[in-house]
Amino acid sequence: MKTPNQASALKFITCGSVDDGKSTLIGRLLVDTKAVLQDHLAGVQRSGETDLALLTDGLSAEREQGITIDVAYRYFNTEARKFIIGDAPGHEQYTRNMVTAASSADAAVVLVDAIKLDWANPDLQLLPQTRRHSLLVNLLRVPSIVFAINKLDAVADATVAYKNIAGALNKFAQEAGIQVTAMVPVSALKGWNVVESQPEWCGYTGPSLLSILEDLPVTPAETDVAFSFPVQWVEKFHDSGVTTQGRRVFWGRVATGSIEPGQTIKVFPSGQTAVVSQVLSATRQPQNKAAGHSAGIVLDREVDVSRGDWLLAAEGSPEGQRQLNTTVAWMDDEPLVAGRLYWALHGHRWVKVKVQRVVHRLNVNTLAEEEATELAPNAIGHVTLALQEPLVTLPFAQSRILGALVLVDTASHKTSGAVLVH
């Protein structure tokens, strides 16, 4: 019988440095769980052998260069559970794609390539991109982080290599405040410890990677926070004629808390209050809704509500803020400097934002906070933002939804940064 954790599909990403075997690992999971058809396998042959990485590298540029550029999503299931995998690129210049995938993931499998490290040295140094991706998934509050040490079949002493690399990872995780869910030695190429366990290999006696993934929890809905609801679409009464009161329906997804008829809400930013008269499901059936579920909300009286506004609990909701202290993962090709203007997207609300100050930059190698006047592409740092209009936010540590926003370049409309509110 499935546990509540296993009843929902697990959305996880693979990340780590370049050529650590992320695409090969996913290919191995797909092949060994019989999720790939024979004709698809026949199409990913190179020199008479199956190239597992090609099962996820779908862009022609990826196949030509042998690298992953964009996030590729694949689906498979076992008898225990359904899975959605995001294969995130390892190149530093595509960090923005990895951040996008991690922001909605339930778990992250960080691959570490044993043959790139000085594995015989107990004080070995991890690759910068391994550290960067680990810091990012931790920063983005991905609930479960699993380290998979790959290519141990290609080293002279797999047991020593696993012990030393695991020690370095544990030391780094402790220094960075990263809670490690599991650590497992694997060979993506040979399939060892991926789907089936390889007994006693590397001195490891734990479960296979797939067994670990089957037991991981999904991201819990934020039901312990006061109700909040970003309005995505306003359906006017003449669009459908369904509501008996002839009032408008406000559609969107409940971000935090829960909603039911009789609750008093306030509209942000106008501050008007009203009472909820109906909560509708996607099929327009009356149904109470909790965080993570889409809903249509009908109020007891007409109030001015537009796309981008928020419906909030009348009591216990955060107040609007015009200045935010944040951590920014910078993804633009142009550096982030004080004085620049950007659009910020929070829920479905757009406001203009000015970069007031770059407080410091995080050194991913030493974890030190260094003085900085700008953030280079793919850097992470502490930044103070001034908003043209207030936003209702909570610290990201408290709410993944209310505590996150995206910065967008006003001229090119490119996504420039992922912002986490302190």
How would the blueprint of this fold be written?
Blueprint lengths: L3 H4 L2 E7 L5 H11 L5 H5 L2 E2 L2 E2 L9 H6 L6 E6 L4 E6 L7 H8 L4 E7 L14 H12 L4 E7 L7 H19 L5 E4 L23 H6 L13 E8 L1 H4 L8 E5 L4 E2 L4 E5 L4 E8 L8 E2 L3 E6 L10 E4 L6 E11 L5 E2 L3 E6 L2 E14 L6 E3 L2 E2 L4 E13 L11 E6 L5 E7 L1
Parallel strand pairs: 1-5, 1-6, 6-7, 7-8
Antiparallel strand pairs: 2-3, 4-5, 9-10, 9-16, 10-15, 11-14, 12-13, 12-16, 13-15, 17-23, 17-25, 18-22, 19-20, 19-24, 20-21, 20-23, 24-25
Characterize the structure shown:
With 422 residues, the chain is α+β, with helices and mostly antiparallel strands. It contains nine helices and 25 strands. A six-stranded mixed sheet has the order 4-5-1-6-7-8, with helices on both faces. A six-stranded antiparallel β-barrel has the order 9-10-15-13-12-16. α7 (158-176) links the parallel β7 (144-150) and β8 (182-185). The two termini are 41 Å apart. 42% of the residues are buried. The model is unreliable at 58-69 (pLDDT under 50).
Instruction: Give the overall form.
Output: globular
Helix segment tally = 9
Radius of gyration: 24 Å
* Helical residues, percent: 10-25%
Counted beta strands: 25
| Class per helix and strand makeup | alpha+beta
Report how far the terminal alpha carbons are from each other: 41 Å
Oligomer: single chain
Give the neighbour order of strands across the main sheet.
Answer: 4-5-1-6-7-8
Task: Give start-end ranges of low-pLDDT stretches.
Answer: 58-69
Q: Largest sheet, described in full?
A: 6 strands, mixed
Calculate the mean pLDDT score and round it: 87
Strand content: 25-35%
